[in-house]
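Hey all, quick one. A colleague (J.T.) asked me to put the zinc ion job into the tracker so the inputs and the structure tokens live in one place instead of scattered across chat threads. No bug as far as I know, just bookkeeping. Sequence used:
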Amino acid sequence: MLRRFTRSVVLVALVAILAQAAFPAPAAAGFAGSHWARERNPFTLKFGDNVDGTWDGYLRRGADEWNRSRVVNANVVGGQGGRNCRANRGRAEVCDGRYGSTRWLGLTQVYLEGNHIVAARVLMNDSYFDTGYYDDPSAKRHTMIHEMGHAYGLPHRGGRSVMNDSATAIFKYDQVTGGDYNDLEQLYRHTDGRTTVSSADASAPFTEAELTAPPPTAGELGGTEKVEDLGNGKTLVTIITPLDA
Ligand SMILES: [Zn+2]
Ligand SMILES: [Zn+2]
């Protein structure tokens, strides 16, 4: 009797351990490893064009560069961001504006469900790009391509890379490099059984306030990256290209 009892306790414990191995708890929310869910590569990410004429060429150029990747395609389409640069499911909205003294040149927000990106928005701050020091084709090229890289889920990288966010890299590395394409291939090495690169996927929606929130300043962000847990597996990640301090 006692022996049978012990055996069933061991069995229950074993089942619990196996179940945990098969269904691990979701990884801690964060930007690392975040990616769009898709069933195959290459997949196309739509970039909504909400930018004015001064940025159109930079957006197209950015799309051309990311298009050279073996795993992703970039397609510039009509913008649906509107006045607030609303983030829309299944795509990235790209906007520019005079956002004021935010202390950032570019800002990207990615909306995550688990570690899958479901929406993104990219903002360029004309308050800096329209004047003096940053009114520079390299700085504009770098920042646009860099923020588009974040929209795919790419984190920062040191050295010769468009994902390098140092003050000198902004003027120096305005093209996607081999290392950047490799990082993208690593990120999209696996495939998923579903897709988030489609507006048809409507699970666990973010609120209108979350999708249209005014962009925070660098001071409000308290750093160059902020991860906010919005509950129910939803996470908002904000990354900025800071002003040269
Ligand atoms: Zn995945
Ligand atoms: Zn960055």
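Adding what we noticed when we looked at it: The helical segments are 2-22, 53-67, 126-129, 137-152, 169-172, 178-187, 208-212, 218-221. The chain has one domain: 32-242.
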